[in-house]
Structure formats: C-alpha cells, structure tokens
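Minutes, project check-in
Item: structure for the 554-residue chain
Input as provided by the requester:
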Amino acid sequence: MSSIIGGYNYDIFISYRQKDNKHDSWGTELFNNFKRRTKIDLKSNLMKALCLLAMIGVLLLICVKRIHAQPTQTQPHQIDMIKGISKDARTYVYQRPQDLERVHGYLIMVENRKIQNSRSIKTSKVIQFKSTLTGVQKLDSMIGEFWDATISQWIVYSKWVHTYDALGNNTSYIYYNWNDITNQWVGSYKRESAYDANRNVIYSIGYDWDKTIRKWVLSYRLVQNYDGLGNMTLAAEYQWDLTTSQWISINKSEYAYDTKGKRTLYIWRNFTSQGLGDSKTEYTYDDNGNNILLVMYNWDKAISRWVGSYKKEVTYDANGKCSLDVNYFWNENTSQWIANRKSEYTYDVNGINTLFIYYLWDTTTSHWVYEWKEEITYDANGNVNFSYYWDVKTSQWVVGAKDEFKHDASGNMTSYISYYWNNTTSQWVGNNNDEYDYDANGNNILCISHSWDSNTSQWIASSKYTLYYSEYNSGTSEKYINVFPNPAQESIIFYIADISESATIEIYDIQGKKVIEQKLPVTGQIFVNRLGKGLYLYRINNNGTIFKGKIVID
C-alpha cells in the first residue's frame, strides 16, 4: 500500500534533526522501539504526536502495522521533524522553512483530489471561497482550531491558503497564525513554485514574514531536475543568508535509475557544518521489479571512502507480497554486517496483511527473539489491530494496545480509535479518537481529534481542521504567466508553460529606459541583482504571445 505522502511506502515519519532520518535504519529502529514501549507505557504521548500529523488537513491512514518508513523511487529528500502543538497551544513551532515544506506535502494530497461540489463547515472565522468559477474544485484554504475547555469553544489559530495556475498546479501557499490581540491573520510562511510541462516542481522559493519590517523576506529555495522519463535526478536546497544576501547551499540529492526507471542509486550531500556527512544508498531488484536489497553507506572523511552503515534484505511471496525483511548494521570493528531485526508478514487469501511479527537479534545467544507482533482482524466497516509484546520473563505474548478503524461505504476512514491495555484493571483504556468527514466525492473536509479524559471517562475534543475548496477552470496555459519572487533581490522567475526557444524579455525602468533585453531561458530565470531598487516594467514575447507586467526590485 502506498503512502498518502508522495514517495513513501508507509504513513508515519519521525525525525529529530535535519537529515537524521536520511538512513532508513534510523527511522525504522526508532519507531519500532517507540512502538513497542509506547504501546504499553507511553502510548498516550506518541499517539498525540501521530494525531497531530492526522490533523494536518488530510486523512492520514494511520497504519501502525506498516511502520517502516522506507524511501521509494520518488522521494526527493528526507523529511524533517514537524514540531507540533499540544491541545493547549495556539501556534505551530517549526525548526526551519523546510519543515513547513514537509507539512505542505500532506496538503498536496488533498488539493490534487479534484471534486465537483464541496460542503463548507462553519468555523469561528469562516473563509469564503475565493473563486466563483465553474469546473472542478481544489483545496482553497484550511482552518486549524483547538478546543478551549475553559470557555467551551473552538479557538482558531492557523490558516493555509492555496492558489493555482491555469493547469491546476499549486503555485503558492501561505501559512498564517491568528493574532488574538489585533484580531487579524498574521503571515508566517509563504512558498511559490514553478512547474515544467509535465507538472513537476522545478523551482520553489520560501519566505518568512518579518514582523519588524512587515514584509516577506527570502528564506528557502528548492531546485529540482528530471530526466526525459520524469524521474527526479537532482534536488538542491538552499537557505537565504540575511547577512550576505546570498543563497547558501544546504544539501544536494542526486539520483540514478536503470532502464526500467527503477532507482538504483541515491546520493545525499550535506553542505552545512551541522548534521551528518554525505551518504548514499544502492538498490537492487529482482526480475519482477521488487526491491530485494538496499545498502546504505556513509562517507568517511578520514579515509576518503564510503563505509557501510545499514543493509536490508527483502523476500517476497509468489504474489509479490513482502513476506520477510532482515535488517543489518555494519560493525566497523569487525568489518562485518551484524543482524539487528527481522520482520515477518502474513496475508489472507485476498492478499491483506493479517499478522506481523518482529524479532530482535540476540548477540549473546545468536538467535532471533520475539519483540512484538500485531494481529489484524477485519469486519465490514473496517479493521481492528491488536498489538502484543513479548514478555521475556514469562515467555508469553502480552496484549499491549488496540487500534480500531471504521470506514464509510466508499472506503473512507471515518474514525480511528486507539486504546492501551491497563494491566491493573485488565481493561482497555481510551487513548486517542480521530473523526473524519468527507464530501460526496470522498474528499476530506473535516478532521476532529479527541483525547481520553480518565477523570470523567469521556472523550474530550482537542483540535479540529476544516478544509475549504474553490472551483477553478483547467485549460491551456498559453496566456498564463507566474512571476516570482516579486519583489525580488537577486533573480526573478517568469514562469510560462512551453517557453519558446525564441522567447525574449525586455525590462524598462520607470522613466521608460530599457535596462535589460535578452532571450528568456527555458527556466524563466532572469538575474536582476544589478538593477537598482524600484519599480520596473517587463515585456515578454513568447512566440507571438505578449506578456506585460510590473516587478519591484527590493
């Protein structure tokens, strides 16, 4: 089952610092340990974190059983941790602009689900539809609220607003926080993007809102290249240095593929002084295109060569289902691969996972020992997961947690409830309860999260996200242009789909003097760092189609 987050197989991602999760083993090992322990002792805290992800405006199918966050063919780079809010907080705290970029990935899934009609949900501050056009609809905006138990009201604290080009590409989104003092939305982060003819993102620029000067300031840039088959070959990230007014390279990801389009190599290069060094991953496939071997390396600067760090071997059944995977770590002292963990998967006659068993390698006995397992049963309305951990003292499986899912007739998950087993009372205790609502076409329009109040033995609302949609007309982009950043300091992207090789651009100052005349490159990028501050006019001739407008050099 593919993830709702593009490029990943599963739906849960955790990372603590930039690039920490660049090794598949890191995410797998961390969450397996988290899962085993939190199902028993700390489940409440973990599920609150997972619920936050679910509340990012989309339906997160929380498949705890599919926990190995394994990068696949389309993943451009690693996902950083999203620092979330508790139910009593009012704003999100992010490490960097990249974190909001990662959050936005969740929203992309929703905005790409086109609908004909949408039911609006009233909130404390209703966002009106921006568009009255006829046609399909896309995600217009999203409102985040938390429940204030003191006054028994939903309190609005965040908003996302999206805009699109004529082809339906999400060209910009803006994230706002609600200011209770001024009773106004205050900008926090903005991103603008350009696409190639295949609707791949080729360029994105992020901005932070500077409260002091009350302006958007450059913050983050992403550049991506693709081969003729649409496979990403390069992803480079930059941060804007306010001191030098220059882009500083953060990292670069490079990809290689075989003749079937399967990724065979991924190299990540770090250009910052913090975090881990360079790494690479090599992929091997069987004749059916299944990834049977993944090996990761770190670059050892001391000896100037790649050193093994992690390896995964995967076995598939006759139906192409993963039946076994074994993970290893590289022991630098012995220069050997050391077994660490293995996972066994069982399916029913319909190919649905019904049993997961996870083992740890006991270096003392040189045997695999049980760690934990999950049993999944299905009914007409969803499924129920039971998680167990292995009690070494009694050599028995001990029940630890339970997850219940409900779905509507269309297969959309309408609720997810998690419980943990109280060994003292021998009862299931509520932990987290998420409810989802959809429009007639299966688009997520509402998500409400609850937590269990042990004092009242009731579910208490904690947070809510409401999604709104606007209609847009899809059609040709011949006469559409997107200009960003505007105002600009270093360069400007004049994005036009199908830029002609003969396209030209002229830029005039406010007195009418021509200051730039040149061909418009296929990237649409024009450097303006030599121009003085002020207002300018541009004229573009793209194979006979004329574009005119204003730009500001800041």
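Outcome recorded: The first helix runs from residue 24 to 54.
No further action items on this chain.
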